[in-house]
Structures are given as C-alpha cells and as structure tokens.
Design goal:
Number of domains: 1
Radius of gyration: 11 Å
Largest sheet: none
Helix content: over 70%
Number of helices: 4
Number of strands: 0
Structural class: mainly alpha
Distance between the termini: 18 Å
Shape: globular
C-alpha cells in the first residue's frame, strides 16, 4: 500500500473490482506511462491517469464500468 493519499484513494476504487494485486499493478504501470510514480502522484495527474486507467480496465470490467471508475478518479475529493 502507498503512502500517497491520492493513490490510496484510487486503490480504494480499484481493489473491490479487480483485487489488490491487479489494482496495484494497474496504478503503477499507468503512473509510469504518464511520467510519474505512485508516490509522486498529484491532483494535476488525475485527468490523464483516469483516461489511462479507463483504457486499461475496459478488458476486465467493460466500457461502462471502466468509465465510471475514470469519472470517480477525476471527481475524487482531495
């Protein structure tokens, strides 16, 4: 688990849907793809990260559920 509160909140959205291991891997890989790390994640990264996570989750959750997760990430209270 991360100490970054933004990443922890995203984990809380992902873990019930795809499990802890896949949630951690998804977040790590998508952070790297946008040029950051899980521990350095900032609110400014959220729109781009949400889009990337949505694309990654379509395979596992389908388009509608993946879009809902992306929306939750973008609208996340900080």
């Amino acid at each position: 688990m991360t100490t970054n509160h933004i990443a922890a909140k995203i984990d809380s959205y992902l873990i019930p849907l795809i499990g802890e291991l896949l949630a951690a891997a998804t977040l790590k890989v998508q952070c790297e793809k946008i040029g950051t790390t899980v521990d350095k994640l900032t609110p400014m990264d959220l729109p781009q990260l949400a889009h990337r996570i949505e694309q990654a989750l379509v395979v596992f959750l389908g388009l509608d559920r993946a879009k809902k997760i992306a929306y939750q990430i973008i609208q996340m209270p900080l």
